[in-house]
Amino acid sequence: MTELKTKRNKGDVHAFLNSVEHEKRKQDALTALAVFEDVTGEKAEMWGESIVGFGSYHYTYANGREADWMLTGFSPRKQSLTLYIMSGFDEYESLLQRLGKHKTGKSCLYINKLEDVDMDVLRELIHRSVEHMKATNPPGS
Q1: How high is the pLDDT of residue 23?
Q2: How many CB atoms within 10 Å of residue 111?
Q3: What Rg do the C-alpha atoms of the chain give, in angstroms?
Q4: Ramachandran area for residue 87 (φ above 0: left; ψ -120 to 50: alpha; else beta)
Q5: 119 part of a folded domain
Q6: In angstroms, what CA-CA distances link 2 with 67, 75, 80, 138?
Q7: Based on the structure, what is the number of domains in the chain?
Q8: Domain containing 109: what range?
Q9: What global pTM score does this model have?
Q10: Are strands 51-54 and 103-104 parallel, antiparallel or unpaired?
Q11: Does residue 1 lie within any of the structural domains?
């Protein structure tokens, strides 16, 4: 069985965010850091080389493999600010309709710039997703 490449580590979150070359993306990431810390009540930690994660949960794959993963997080990617909404989006259609300009993947929310979205709606989306993950998964280590 292969081991997960993206793991929580002791990387310096502020050093990582301050190294982002795209100035607008860097400022949005620093804003996202404050929002995620406030909404989750969790301390930011690096996951892999480029993801800032908050909290963790434990899960077991269908094949029996177990792992810990972040409750939520974000990454200032080259194309967009990517937010990890681990519960997915099935239950949040009304929030997504009010959010503003964005794209979604399975558990990824892609935002070009934070000024394109309603920050109160974004905070609610993060909050609901984290509460869902806590309610349906055991805590990680």
Answers
A1: 95
A2: 21
A3: 15
A4: alpha
A5: yes
A6: 12, 24, 29, 23
A7: 1
A8: 8-136
A9: 0.92
A10: unpaired
A11: no
